[in-house]
Amino acid sequence: MKLGVEALVDALRAGELAILPTETVYGLAADAANARAVAAIYEAKGRPRFNPLIAHVAAVTAAERLGGFDTRARDLAEAFWPGPLTLVLPATTNCMVSDLARAGLDTVAVRVPAHAHARAALSAFGGPVVAPSANRSGRPSPTTFADACEEVGFAAAAGVDGGLCAVGLESTVVSVLNGPVRLLRPGAITRDALEVVVGPLAEAESDARRSPGRHAAHYAPEAPVRLEAEAPRAGEAWLSFGRQAAGPAEFALSPTGDLREAAANLFAMLRMADRLRPSAIVVAPIPPHGLGEAINDRLRRAAGYVG
Ligand code: TXA
Ligand code: MG
C-alpha cells in the first residue's frame, strides 16, 4: 500500500481504492463517478449492494453540483460543514455520483468532512469521493489507521494515516427532501444541535427506509455484547463509564463521564476488548442525552438488539 495524500489521489484517479482518514471514522474511498471502483468497495466490504454510499466533497459549491439545496439544507450546511453531518438531498440531473453508489435512488448523500488530510485529498482530486466506513460489513468502524488496514487493507492501493479519529462515531445522516427534515442515523452532530438550526426533527418513517441497510449485527465484535452492565462477571471484558479502569479487562470509555471522550473511544475499545477473546463484552449504562443517543444506537446494533 502506498502512503500519503498524493498516492491516495493517484489511486482514486486510477480507479483504485484507498484508506481515507476523516474526523469521524476511517473510510474506504473510491471515485464516486467510477462504477467499477464503487463495485470494488462493495466487494471489499462484503456489503449488500442496496446500501447507498456517502459522497464526500471539499466544499459546499461542489456539494451543490450533486444535490438540490433548499433553505433548510443551506442552513444545515452553513452550521455544520465542514464536519460530521451528512445530508440526503434530491440528486441533480447531472449528479456525478454513480447509480451504483446511490443504489439506484433519486437522492444522494453528501458530506464535507473536516479532517485536514481528507480536505487536502478531496480538493486535489476535485470530484466526489464515496467512502463508507473502512470495515468489513457488520463490524465496528475503524478509528485508527491500523484498524482500517486490518479490516480492508487487502483491497486498498493507497492510504493516509491521519491519526486517531477525533470524533470516533459516524456522521449524523438527515434527509432534506419534500416534507420535514428527518433524522436517518443519529451520529456525531446531536439532535439538539440540529434542532437549533431547523426546528423539531421528524423520525425516519420506518427502519427499512431510515438508512437502507442498517441491519442488526452492525458494528459487532466477535464476542457477544451485553448492555447496561454495572459490573462484569468472570471471563468478561467490561467497557465502563465514569470510572478509572481497575484491571486489564476493563476499558474506561471515559473516566470522567464525558460523552465526547466515550464516543471517540467506543469502537477502538470494542476492538481491544474483543482481542482478549472474552466470553462476552459487557458495557456500562451510557446516558441517553446528547452524543449518548448515537453511542447507544451503535451499542444496540453491536448487541444485535435492533432489527
Ligand atoms: O462518518 C461517516 O459518515 C463515515 C465517514 C467515512 O465519512 N462514512 C460512513 O459511510 O459512515 P457508510 O457508508 O458506512 O454509511 C452511509 C449511511 C448508511 O446508513 C446509508 O444507508 C446512508 O448513509 N445513506 C447513504 N445514501 C443514502 C440515501 N440516498 N438515502 C438514505 N440514506 C442514505
Ligand atoms: Mg459503516
Bound small-molecule species: threonylcarbamoyladenylate, magnesium ion
Tell me, briefly, the overall form. globular
Question: Which series of helices and strands comes N to C?
Answer: EHEEHEHHEEHEHEEEHEHEEEHEH
What is the number of strand segments? 15
Keywords:
4-stranded parallel beta sheet; binds magnesium ion; single chain; alpha/beta; 15 strands; binds threonylcarbamoyladenylate; 11-stranded mixed beta sheet
In short:
The protein is an alpha/beta fold and 307 residues long. It has helices spanning 5-13, 35-45, 60-63, 71-80, 116-125, 145-152, 191-198, 207-210, 259-275, 292-302; strands spanning 2-3, 18-20, 27-31, 54-56, 85-90, 107-111, 129-130, 158-159, 172-175, 182-185, 202-203, 225-226, 237-240, 250-252, 281-283. 30% of the residues lie in helices and 16% in strands.
